[in-house]
């Protein structure tokens, strides 16, 4: 969430910055500016009324005859001031609620280093790793390969759950598990992340904290509850959602906390299943495992001092790249333009892995620096070592990696003419020594 004071005092600059993202709702931003001014006036007026009430109360206390007309007049004055204060407080609450509603729906401001542009065509290629695999036969996509190997079962998944689900079978399931284990081992032992295994059901407050709500409510799976649960939820004051990414529970580990500066940076990695309705994506990537409703992912989350955000982003991106390099997968790194970044990001790098069957690079990790956009929502702060006033932390996260898409890339980049698939050397120990997947 953006800082109200900054937005209201720098409205022209904010409009220009959001315009770089393709957000051009000047009416909404002007409304925010007007409400911010009204809020300041209401607060000033209420404080003045409270001072008048204090003075009137003291004056009434000095009236000796409690039955006199003077005393009754003072009492009426106090009552009238109280009514005005109550009205002012009510209006302040209304204004602040509308301001929060507007702020919660405004995207983050792009960092000055983020390139201009509105679509993925405007993203900037930073570097390319490895060579594009060459084939002397007609390449097949992961659906054909996995089905022939007997490791991907879309038909039975549809019978169980509907479209956009997959059942991993046999060595496919083992390969998925091996990828998860490799990623977690590398990030904990080589990169110093602390592993966590968080819940996959989270409160609406956690979804709001990282920016999924209210903006992306249509893409989230909210848990349907019976009447008994509804009564309990009402008492607890929250709904529950299936996580769209482990970013949500892991980042919220420090919601409403103040951590010591000496503890920074804080780095977590964790695996979860992830759930997305993919609202608005029908007809796009419907074949196979590229865009499904349930998928597995290892996440990287970092908390840092505001002065370290850019260097932390580069480190996190490198950590995610390490997995692709260990697997020998050809990929590239692109810096996203302002209009192609996620809602909460201010600067992002995408890792895009090569998929031969599509003859295209596809995102496998998005590594982003959010500034204090998330921590302002979560009230996650740090206390400077000099015992100064607590400051908002900066957050970063990225996939390290999306396991399903990594599996897809392995099947397509490592396919052989006889229908077999070479297992990357880094995974062989996790696969019990199996070096190749072969059709039965």
Describe the overall structure:
This protein has 13 helices and 18 strands. The mean pLDDT is 95. It folds into two domains: 101 residues, Serine-tRNA synthetase, tRNA binding domain (Helix Hairpins, Orthogonal Bundle); 318 residues, Bira Bifunctional Protein, Domain 2 (BirA Bifunctional Protein, domain 2). It has 440 residues and is α+β, with helices and mostly antiparallel strands. It has an eight-stranded mixed beta sheet.
Rg calc? 27 Å
In this structure, how is the largest beta sheet organized? 8 strands, mixed
Give the averaged pLDDT, no decimals. Answer: 95
CATH superfamily of the largest domain: Bira Bifunctional Protein, Domain 2
Overall helicity: 40-55%
Any idea what the shape is?
elongated
| Strand segment tally | 18
Distance between the termini: 53 Å
Structurally, the number of domains stands at 2
CATH topology of the largest domain: BirA Bifunctional Protein, domain 2
Q: How many helix segments?
A: 13
CATH architecture of the largest domain: 2-Layer Sandwich
- By secondary-structure content and strand pairing, the structural class works out as alpha+beta
Low-confidence stretches: none
Return the CATH class of the largest domain.
Alpha Beta
Beta-sheet strand percentage? Answer: 15-25%
